[in-house]
Amino acid sequence: MKMMTTLYFLWLLLVPLFQILSGNDIFLVSSQCLDDQKSLLLQLKGSFQYDSTLSNKLERWNHNTSECCNWNGVTCDLSGHVIALELDDEKISSGIENASALFSLQYLESLNLAYNKFNVGIPVGIGNLTNLKYLNLSNAGFVGQIPMMLSRLTRLVTLDLSTLFPDFDQPLKLENPNLRHFIENSTELRELYLDGVDLSAQRTDWCQSLSSYLPNLTVLSLCACQISGPIDESLSKLQILSIIRLERNNLSTTVPGYFANFTNLTTLSLDSCNLQGAFPKKIFQVQVLESLDLSNNKLLSGSIPSFPRNGSLRRISLSYTNFSGSLPESISNLQNLSRLGLSDFNFNGPIPSTMANLINLGYLDFSRNNFTGSIPHFQRSKKLTYLDLSRNGLTGLLSRAHFEGLSELVYINVGDNSLNGTLPAYIFELPSLQQLFLNSNQFVGQVDEFRNASSSLLDTVDLRNNHLNGSIPKSTFEIGRLKVLSLSSNFFSGTVTLDLIGRLNNLSRLELSYNNLTVDASSSNSTSFTFPQLSILKLASCRLQKFPDLMNQSMMIHLDLSDNQIRGAIPNWIWGIGDQGLTHLNLSFNQLEYMEQPYTASSNLVVLDLHTNRLKGDLLIPPSSPIYVDYSSNNSNNSIPLDIGKSLGFASFFSVANNGITGIIPESICDVSYLQILDFSNNALSGTIPPCLLEYSTTLGVLNLGNNRLHGVIPDSFPIDCALNTLDLSENKLQGRLPKSLVNCKLLEVLNAGNNRLVDHFPCMLRNSNSLRVLVLRSNQFSGNLQCEVTINSWPNLQIIDIASNNFTGVLNAEFFSNWRGMMVADDYVETGRNHIQYKFFELSNMYYQDTVTLTIKGMELELVKILRVFTSIDFSSNRFQGAIPDTIGNLSSLYVLNLSHNALEGPIPKSIGKLQMLESLDLSRNHLSGEIPSELASLTFLAALNLSFNKFFGKIPSTNQFQTFSADSFEGNSGLCGLPLNDSCQSNGSESLPPLTSQSDSDDEWKFIFAAVGYLVGAANTISPLWFYEPVKKWFDKHAEKWLLWFSRM
């Protein structure tokens, strides 16, 4: 009897223990399931609509099983009452009525309905389950206002109403009641998850509400709740918080330093909160902190401090913030670190070699930073699966030792760096590697064959933009899983036959453009040839002489065969490639002459590039609103269809430049409301400019109508929100004035109205344009002076100004040259890659429109196909300017070209011109300049063209090496000059040619010289007059008389 009592006592102790340890599927109970409980559960099952094929719990509840406490998802207490229901992810798609059997399970302490699809409001009946301690309705499809009845659940310890994908039409929200009223009776609550619940009605006092009513809170998760900042000081009362997740709220505040006082804090997630200011370094030092996520806060600054030994951090994500500085060597103290994301930072300096000691590291993303130096070895990081070091300044070699033994590595991206040397074959042999990006580096040499290609898991190999040469390794074409192969822009050589590509059955993207490869398409016509179903094929500059047979390509959307040697017709089958039709077709830079009939472009075609061929006939316009159409540089001489606007409804880029297109500009082009670039230049268009074309320039960034036969006035119809960056109307027959509404184009960088018939004054209205870089008004009939009201902000970025061949008068404005800061300092655009004036369109792409301009440089008319942002030029030639050259011109320290020729300028050359150290061309010819040539000009070491002819200079020409490179033509017409390269040497006693003087004695000498000359001429006449009637002499005189007269006129 005593033994039985002891066993019974032990059994009573162990039953609760087993109940805890056994999870949710196996339960020990002291009695059978109560009939009423079983009945309620079966009623509940019957009220639900669910997918029985996907159910793991409900589908197994049935009448034949008497013990309902053993049903999956059901937990009973010792008395047989149901105390827990786990019905998560049962694919329930019906609502819960307020009379549901669920609300009769009064003993429920735990209810989990997560991950279902109820798509109704939360039933108020849940508020009757007052014994609930755990309630999880997350991601269950509940919508609308959270009922006040839930606030009756005063015993709740854990509440989870979060949703990953809220219904934006009917979001789950706490509005009435708001958060304060909802939680005021929930003092036992320790874990609160309201992610995705609309708490906007709470405004900024959510911190006070939480700290006032939830003193025992350990987990706070309010992601994407539309709460706002600041994070109030009152939150510091919740000292036992261990998890804080507030990501995706527009808090617009600083991070409070008191978080560092939360000694239990293990997780702090503030991703995408629009945080500002400096992040408190001491938070990094919280002893138990395991996860820190501050990513996507561009205004949050800070640096990473040194880490103490045995730090607890496992995950750090600081991507897309404004953190800067270097990465401390002590990063190796975080021996538990498994995930480190520092992409899109301002980090610089080397990657610490101590990173090699992070043995638990699994994920590393340092992309888009300024890290320099070599890549550390990661052999000890055996758990590493993801490595992204792309878009940095890393240098050095990539060796086998970097990755040896990393058998779990799945992803490697070291693209867009400056790595060099040859590629180790070992990197292709890593057993788990699936994606390999080595693009845009300086790798050289051949890529060696690698082992085990047929069993490789690689699906992506990107070696673009390197200096790799030799043949493409044959093992590449044995990687059976390969989906993406990108080898463009290298020096690979040899012949690639399409049947070789046909081995890659899973290939979906192939890029071989811009190598020294020859792609042989002849095998594509073979009946036995099977080409993989590609979505993207880029074979630009592959010496193709014919179209490969792609008629059976059902998946293809992008085809680039540009810069090849394909002649003749564009086959009509090309428009039927792909089940949905091509979206991108580039056949530019070939020798195509016509389109095979009949042809109908795909209705899905977004990009059509046919420029630089020999196409004749009508323009091909896709039938259904393309975005990019380039038909430039062909041989079409037809007119633009009058209804062109209907076919270009969504077009951003349309160019028919460099053809022979005739007719007028159709007004329907104004209906293309998304147009950013319109280029009709270098054609034979006539008529006037449609006023609507300028009226609708709120999206138009580039309008180029240059070199046509347009006439009439420029419409004065630029809107107040004009978006033009480039306006080129040059080389037409336009008349009238520059429109005053042009001042509305505040983004204008290039204005070219040269070579027209405009009659106007200098456009002082544009003097406050901060964006204008190029102003060309040459060869018109502009007049007046340049005396604009100048301020310190006038023309600040002007770098090219050409007003040559007009009728401008007056003196040169010294203040102009004081304010043109765009010509004063060396630009850093070359370093940043923005080294040309260009207009970016398709904001998510790298597509640019390249501006051009024609200037007179070194006496020759040259077209600048690319306008360097560092190129600067002033051309005021062939006007009627008077007075002195302002000394302030010497401020333009980055000036390349200065042309003031053919004016009436007087006085000496300012010595300050010697400060123009970048000057390459200087033309001051045909003026009335005088004095000596300043010796300072000899320091202009880049000066390649100099013309000082036909002025009144005197003295010795500087004899430096630079001046000795110029011919005598540069100095002719200056009677007072002497020394090389002129034949008139200066006197050896040191007295050099002097300027003409105006004293009386000099005047007498001049008269004596004149009388002596007359006497000499009379005598000479007597001598040569008999020869006048000798025919050969007469012809010789007729030929040279004009030159004599010109010489005498200059004396």
Automatic annotation (TrEMBL):
Subcellular compartments: Cell membrane
Residue span, Leucine-rich repeat-containing N-terminal plant-type domain: 35-77
InterPro entries xrefs: Leu-rich_rpt, Leu-rich_rpt_typical-subtyp, LRR_dom_sf, LRR_N_plant-typ
Keyword Isomerase: no
Keyword Membrane: yes
Chief location: membrane
Record's GO cellular component terms: plasma membrane
Annotated keywords: Cell membrane, Glycoprotein, Leucine-rich repeat, Membrane, Receptor, Repeat, Signal, Transmembrane, Transmembrane helix
GO biological process: defense response to fungus
SMART domains according to UniProt: LRR_TYP
Family: Belongs to the RLP family.
Alphabetized PANTHER family for the sequence: LRR RECEPTOR-LIKE SERINE_THREONINE-PROTEIN KINASE FLS2 (PTHR48052:SF8), UNNAMED PRODUCT (PTHR48052)
Protein name: Resistance protein SlVe1
Organism listed in the record: Solanum lycopersicoides
